[in-house]
Design a protein that fits this description.
- The chain is an alpha/beta fold.
- The protein folds into two domains: 194 residues, NAD(P)-binding Rossmann-like Domain (Rossmann fold, 3-Layer(aba) Sandwich), CATH 3.40.50; 244 residues, NAD(P)-binding Rossmann-like Domain (Rossmann fold, 3-Layer(aba) Sandwich), CATH 3.40.50.720.
- It is 43% helix and 13% strand.
- The chain has a six-stranded parallel β-sheet with strand order 3-2-1-4-5-6, with helices on both faces. A six-stranded parallel β-sheet has the order 11-10-9-12-13-14. A two-stranded parallel ribbon has the order 7-8.
- α4 links the parallel β4 and β5.
- α1 packs across α3 and α8 packs across α10.
- The radius of gyration is 24 Å and the shape is globular.
- The structure holds uridine-5'-diphosphate-glucuronic acid.
Length: 439
Amino acid sequence: MNISVYGLGRVGLVTAVCFARKGYTVFGFDQNVQLIEQIRRHEAPFHEPHLADYINETVRNRRLHLNEENSESEFIFITVGTPSTSDGGIDLSQVKRAAAKIELAPSTVKRIIVVKSTVIPGTARMLADTIFNKVPNNGAKVCSNPEFLREGNAIQDTEFPDRIIIGGDDHAAMQKLEGLYKDFCGQRIPPVVQTTFENAEMIKYASNAFLATKISFINCLAGIASKTQNADIKSIANGIGLDPRIGDKFLNAGLGWGGSCFPKDLDALLAYSKKVRYDALILKATRDTNKRQWKTAVTYAKAALGSFKNKKISVLGLAFKPDTDDMREAVSIRIINQLVKMEANVAVFDPAAMNTARKIWGKKVTYAKDPQECVKGSYCCILATEWDEFRILEPHFFLTQMAKPILVDGRRVYDPKRYRNAGIKFFAIGLGPVQDDGK
Ligand code: UGA
């Protein structure tokens, strides 16, 4: 069976290679010629575990075709970007352009247009009404099919999704799309929800808004815990997470959420709420809590050091989360900008995001080749992203490398007792003052 994918970004490319690897013939399109060339050379255009292997295999065995016209694709996925507009809404121009292009492309089969890009309620119906139903007897049907993959886990999430949401108003088309997923997932088909276009589109925003709210909630509690003697948000999160109605996922307090999805989707949902005249108070609080969360790192560092002027401060982790090189809306950006503004000599290290970082700061910071070079001689170290290779850094490492062993654990990866007992001046999100904290 032939499948087309329009837009080979983080969602589209992963979707394309996963279908291709399962034996479908996939036609991937992107207007970015450089990106296409990179994939043709079997290179992954961004850091994502296993992606390079999947590209290599599917381009070599000609399951994945790049920018080659095909008139026999029964399913056409739209996976282009939906960037933010200045008022926080979303820019649909790429989606509309892709739809118009698809509509004009020659076809010998009845096509199902699958909108995977994250779009506000009403978008897929609008595309169906204004583009695909326009031409009499065109025969193309539209389904909404939001994507829930996480960066850094994209291949696994695509191959083993935990639910499949299909929105639409054509029963036969929705059944066909469900059939495609049944075939793709085999025995491991998760629950499938068939619903309206608008519900499907809203489920995507609601999922991300809920997760962002869960994190902002625990970060809010972390703020209270940090002002409470002998309190620790880790223990509190553990205690509440055991209640199955709450659950233990996405309760890691830290410096806040970033990335290309939560910030953009929350803004888009808020802009949409405004448009439909509903004052979404919880969403505003979720966003505002996150907007200031990064400051905690600087506050702790300042409390311990006083002035940053001409002092080396090391920052471990730049990507918005581990296992990606993506720095969009990463909290590290705000923290480092502030440190630079306060005249610190900032040294940074990230296992994957160094090239991205160089484009952001140029000569304003120094780029270390490993954690040791980063931390060496620094007066304070801030852990901003919880890569596995930072988790294993022992108290001894900080004590022997740093000018002053002051550590701000922005992601709660280290055991406070152990690091404090070893002689490190240790700060962490959501950790209250201890009675015998003499260090
Ligand atoms: C998120 C959703 O989890 C996906 O389901 C969704 O498909 C995706 O957005 C999207 O809309 O495309 P992603 O942005 O890749 O995925 O990353 P997450 O793992 O959700 O993490 C988002 C942010 O929350 C990161 O900055 C992470 O550090 C932070 N986070 C996560 C916390 O601060 N605490 C937690 O407990 C969990």
